[in-house]
């Protein structure tokens, strides 16, 4: 199909929008034949009714076309060109557009379609048959050109024998017997039944292109019966067709999960306010800094849930409480999905450790996670995207990042493995860029993305709200001792100092 390329001439066969006279006013008058085989492919073929008068041209191309005699010639030329392409079958290849040349104006696709619609309504013609014949003629023309080129460069040798002798006894006597015909005749002598018993027994030997070693058919491995049974049980959950759509209202889908989120927020707020760090002797691992113990515990929980996804008998339970499914949401999935990962990459990217106290860190982590889960559920329910599901602790990680950026608003960025390098970008700027990135990606891809950007945004909101609560309580102003600060900077400190205080 030809591409409608820009012409060197201005677009003329469109609505009148220029004061200067069009360039095709100089198009000469051409007597066009009625038979397309005698016509020029560019000049076209004359219509059976002859050139159209101005009033009919207005009905075809619009009432606001140019009305000069030269313009009428150009419009009739357009009809002649499209008519030639119809009759010759060239329409299937060239289309209705014309790029223009020094003697003819450019025809846009829209303008050419107007001419084609008129011609089809006025002069019916079997364009499909003409297109097939055009394709056959083009194939023959290309073959002839290739043969002539081969003879010119010496690949083929011209033969004086007439074409009708090719494939005849006279032609075979000239060139000798065909090797392919001999092979075919030999195989035709062998009954087909001799080959049938060899295929299932693997007795058919390969030829020269056969790789060394045993070969066989690739057969898809069938799942075991017990695995199929657990798959069916996992699929036979409450997420059924009768539970999706208008059966449940938007409010009934969201309010149970909202109550769970409110309960979690209240619990973490109270727990973080009245939490008392245990002494070193009362801790389970006294030699491990509290920050490391907290992070390792979260990683352990996530790894445990990650492994539970690999146990088929637990699939239905995991689908119920560790997925966020807008089609039939479960309230407890607001918490369960925050610790659910089905791939190790997703798990590794979401585990975040920040320099805050244990109680406040866990409060921010849990609060941001459930707020992100609720935001994700509400968004997909509002879009009626019932078959979408969400899981992972991305919202919790985003909340931790947001809180850290606001706790140290004027601190520049420092790479983890290059502590002496400072990037002149404040943490608040980083937070703004992260939020803007999720908003842009959400606006561009929506539910088509495999990343829950709404959950990320909800996590950022949860982190900001957690920072505001800590600021109002005055927890951000508390300072630790130098030993505690040094211990926080490494999971494995070199000294055995007492790390029993809060970290």
Automatic annotation (TrEMBL):
Cross-referenced Pfam families: Rhomboid (PF01694)
Keyword terms of this UniProt record: Hydrolase, Membrane, Transmembrane, Transmembrane helix
GO molecular function, one term: serine-type endopeptidase activity
TM segment ranges: 254-275, 287-309, 359-381, 388-409, 421-443
Entries under InterPro entries matching the protein: Peptidase_S54_rhomboid_dom, Rhomboid-like_sf, Rhomboid_protease_S54
Gene Ontology CC, one term: membrane
Domain annotation Peptidase S54 rhomboid: ranges: 333-471
Membrane topology note: Multi-pass membrane protein
SUPFAM superfamilies: Rhomboid-like
Any GO BP annotation: signal peptide processing
Subcellular localization(s) per the UniProt record: Membrane
Family classification: Belongs to the peptidase S54 family.
Protein known as: Peptidase S54 rhomboid domain-containing protein
Organism annotation: Cryomyces minteri
């Amino acid at each position: 199909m030809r591409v409608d390329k820009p012409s060197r001439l201005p677009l003329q066969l469109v609505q009148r929008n220029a004061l200067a006279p069009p360039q095709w006013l100089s198009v000469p008058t051409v007597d066009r034949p009625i038979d397309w085989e005698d016509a020029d492919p560019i000049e076209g073929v004359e219509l059976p009714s002859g050139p159209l008068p101005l009033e009919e041209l207005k009905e075809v191309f619009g009432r606001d076309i140019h009305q000069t005699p030269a313009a009428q010639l150009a419009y009739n030329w357009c009809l002649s060109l499209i008519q030639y392409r119809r009759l010759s079958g060239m329409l299937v290849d060239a289309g209705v557009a014309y790029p223009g040349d020094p003697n003819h104006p450019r025809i846009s696709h829209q303008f050419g379609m107007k001419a084609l619609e008129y011609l089809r309504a006025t002069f019916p013609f079997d364009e499909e048959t003409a297109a097939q014949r055009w394709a056959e003629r083009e194939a023959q023309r290309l073959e002839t050109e290739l043969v002539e080129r081969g003879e010119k460069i010496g690949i083929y040798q011209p033969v004086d024998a007439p074409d009708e002798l090719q494939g005849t006894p006279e032609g075979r006597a000239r060139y000798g017997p065909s090797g392919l015909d001999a092979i075919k005749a030999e195989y035709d002598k062998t009954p087909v039944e001799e080959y049938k018993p060899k295929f299932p027994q693997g007795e058919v030997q390969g030829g020269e292109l056969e790789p060394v070693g045993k070969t066989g058919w690739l057969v898809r491995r069938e799942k075991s019966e017990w695995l199929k049974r657990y798959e069916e049980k996992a699929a036979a959950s409450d997420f059924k067709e009768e539970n999706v759509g208008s059966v449940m209202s938007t409010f009934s889908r969201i309010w149970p999960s909202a109550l769970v989120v409110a309960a979690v927020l209240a619990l973490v707020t109270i727990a973080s306010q009245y939490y008392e760090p245990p002494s070193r002797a009362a801790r389970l691992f006294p030699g491990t800094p509290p920050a490391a113990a907290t992070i390792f515990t979260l990683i352990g929980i996530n790894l445990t849930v990650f492994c539970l996804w690999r146990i088929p008998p637990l699939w239905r339970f995991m689908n119920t409480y560790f997925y966020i499914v807008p089609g039939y949401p479960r309230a407890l999935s607001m918490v369960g999905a925050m610790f659910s990962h089905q791939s190790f990459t997703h798990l590794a990217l979401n585990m975040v450790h920040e320099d805050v106290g244990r109680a406040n860190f866990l409060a921010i982590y849990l609060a941001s996670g459930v707020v992100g889960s609720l935001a994700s559920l509400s968004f997909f329910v509002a879009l009626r995207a019932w078959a979408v599901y969400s899981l992972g602790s991305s919202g919790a990680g985003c909340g931790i990042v947001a809180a850290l950026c606001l706790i140290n608003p004027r601190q520049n960025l420092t790479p983890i493995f290059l502590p002496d390098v400072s990037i002149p970008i404040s943490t608040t700027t980083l937070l703004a860029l992260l939020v803007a990135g999720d908003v842009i990606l959400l606006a561009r891809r929506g539910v088509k993305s495999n990343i829950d950007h709404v959950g990320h945004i909800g996590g950022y909101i949860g982190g900001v709200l957690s920072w505001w609560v800590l600021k109002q309580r005055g927890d951000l102003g508390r300072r630790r001792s130098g030993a505690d600060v040094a211990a926080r900077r490494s999971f494995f400190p070199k000294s055995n100092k007492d790390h029993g205080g809060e970290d």
